[in-house]
Structure formats: C-alpha cells, structure tokens
Amino acid sequence: MTIKKPKVKKVCVVTGTRAEYGLLYWLMKDIYSDADLKLQVIVTGTHLSPEFGLMYREIEKDFLIDKKIEMLLSSDTSIGISKSMGLSQISFAESYEELKPDIIILLGDRYEIFSAASAAMIARIPIAHIHGGETTEGAFDEAIRHSITKMSHLHFATTIEYKNRIIQLGENKEHIYNVGSLGVENIKRLKLHSREEIEKMFCFDFTKKNIIVTFHPVTLENKTSQKQFKNLLDALLELNDVSIVFTKSNADTDSRIINEMIDSFVKKHSDNSCAVFSMGQLNYFSALQYIDLVIGNSSSGIIETPSFRLPTINIGERQKGRVQNKNVINCLPEKDSISEAIDLAFSDMFIESIKNIKNVYEQDKTSKSIIDIIKRTNLSNIIKKRFNDIKN
Asked: 276, 244 in Cβ contact below 8 A?
C-alpha cells in the first residue's frame, strides 16, 4: 500500500517595511526550515525605495525574494498614497496568479498590506492575519486593520483582549488564536549587540541619560504633524546631559515634514543627537538595553519596551486604544505635558514601580504556534465565512 505524502503548503509572506520585516523574520525562518511548508516572499513598500535605504538588499541575504512590488513613494500626500494602493493591488493580483500560494501571511495595518489583502480576497486565497483586533484611534490604520480582519481567515492576536475584539467583529472563534507578539518573542531569540557595537554602528556615544524618539504622523488628524513634533522637540531642548537617537517616520501622510525637522534638529545639535532611517529589530532591541527612555507614538513603545522594563512616553492619540503595560506614560502632544511626562519617566519612583512588570504581549513559542495552526488547518474549506453574531 502506497502512503500518499501530504501536499506541501505554499506560504506567502508579504512585507513592506523594515520594522514589519523584523517582526516576521523568525517566523519566515521557521517556515523556510519546515519540510511541510514552502516559503514564498513578496516585498513591497519602503523596502524598494532608495529614500528608505533599499532594504530589499538585506532581505535577499536572508531569503529568496519571489516578487518585488513597486509603490509610488515619491509622494506622501493622500492622493499619492491612494494611487499607490491601486497600482500595487494590480501587481499583487498578478503575483498571486503566478505564485499560486495556498495561504498569505499579512501583519498589521499599513495601506500596502490592505492592497495585498484585497487582491488575495478576490483571488480566493486564504489570509492569515497577525496583530488583528487592535485599536489605534488616531490613525487610519485602525480602519485598515479591521478591514483586513474581515478579509482574513486565520487570526493571530497578541492579547486576549484583541482576540475578543476579533470575535466581536463576527469572526469564527475556532479560527482566532491568542499567540502573543512576534516582536516580544524576537527579543528572546536574537543575539543582541553590546553597548560598544551599538555606539560604533551609530557613530554616537551614549551618555548619562539616553532617549530614543520615534514619532509618526497622526493620519486621522489634518496637518497636525509639524505642530506636535515641534512641541516634542521644544521639550527635548530643555533637557541637560541627555543624548537623543531619532528614528525617522514611516512613509505616511506628511511624514516628510517630520523627517525634515529631525534633520534640522540633528544638524544644530550634532553633539548630542543623531538620526537613522530605521534601526531594524536587532539594532533597536540592542539599543533598548542601554536606553533610559523611549518617547513618541509608535507601536513598539507599547508592545516591546515593557520586556526591557523601560519607561515609555506615548504622545497623543495615534496609539490610543492599545492594551498598555504599566511602563507607558500617556501625555498630550503639548510641550508642557510632554515635559511633565519626561520628569515622571526619569523619577526614581516610576523606575522602581516598573522593575518587575510582565509584558502582557508575551507568550511562549509564538512563531511555532502560528506554524502549527497553519499546518493543521484545512485551507480548502475556510474561504466561505459566516458572520457570527454575539448572543446577548
């Protein structure tokens, strides 16, 4: 009797930003190493942009890239971004037709990921979505994320609260899993750089107090980026004996305004500040070992910094609604409010209060859980979905 070997599942991972690729790296590596799975890789977004460092070259050192999908990143206006979404959706459709994946893995809520999801839905390819159910009330990522959830078939949430929200959106409980954060898992799996290695990489010496600043536009607000970021810079100018590392803004609406302001600030204060386009996961996590404060409005400040017991200031409403650990201090995007938050973050009382916190985004073996679920799921019968009403 001949035993039929199970069909190898083709798993297509889409990545559009350096930060997102850092989150996906170990999952992709584990998929590649699994004999029952075949990894396919599509890169898009800032990976292919000279302005953002042509990150695809680094990805090519790790994996074979099956498809590159260009987007129009020369414009950060709402019209330019909408055009990029439309053009990339055409290219995603063509790529899926050629690669014929059995399932697409998408992470997060950026507009290029929305295009990837839309094309997969029309092509009747199952979607596994990571980081669904979260809320960020100040960004249009909020609507994009929930839209991707409704187009997806397997859901990998990072906390129980987010799992429950996906259920609230009408998805099948049997296909929703709380697996924790890939980013938090990566902290354990990466071999982090030493202080000396990080300083050499940045051409920058850490001092008595050190801050990482990551600030992105609040995309549901109309042209507030310049004013809000100026308030942050004004608050930073009042600090003494502090070194500042800026990571530049995502390719979002009005992102160039923030990046130009960073360049101007660093040029005037090169003795105690520097700027990088994006550190990448390894360099970022390595730096967090020696940093005293993270300040801005990025998801990393909410999700990953708690694992380092590190004070974090979350400015404004971009991340409003996310589950937070006790290391996060929320403040208004106003100079006085930011300054008060910095004073609190540097206080002995606050630092002592977060010494033993446990990160709510942490779970064991996140990547393995995702892979095991994909392997055991019958993908042939999950395309048709029923809306599951919540019974009172």
From this structure: no
Beta pairing partners, 377: none
The number of beta carbons lying within 10 Å of the beta carbon of residue 268 is: 10
Q: Where in the chain is the domain with CATH 3.40.50.2000?
A: 9-180+363-381, 192-353
Alpha helices in the chain (DSSP H): 18-33, 56-62, 78-99, 111-122, 141-151, 160-168, 182-189, 195-202, 225-237, 255-268, 280-288, 299-303, 335-345, 348-353, 366-376
Alpha-carbon span 217 to 110, nearest angstrom: 13
**Domain 192-353 class in CATH:** alpha beta
pLDDT digits (tens, 9 = 90+) for 353-377: 999 999 999 999 999 999 999 999 9
Q: How many CB atoms lie within 10 A of CB 379?
A: 15
Contact 174, 377 (CB under 8 A): no
Q: Report the alpha-carbon distance of residue 102 to residue 380 in Å, rounded.
A: 9
**Burial per residue of 275-285, b for 16 or more beta-carbon CB atoms within 10 angstroms, e otherwise:** bbbbbbbebbb
User: What's the pTM value of the predicted model, to 2 decimals?
Assistant: 0.88
Residue-wise pLDDT for 306-351, tens only, equals 999 999 999 998 888 899 999 999 999 999 999 999 999 999 999 9
Place of tokens 């101007």: 264
Strand locations in 267-334, DSSP E? Answer: 273-276, 293-296, 312-315, 328-331
Radius of gyration of the chain (CA): 21
Domain 9-180+363-381 has CATH 3.40.50.2000: yes
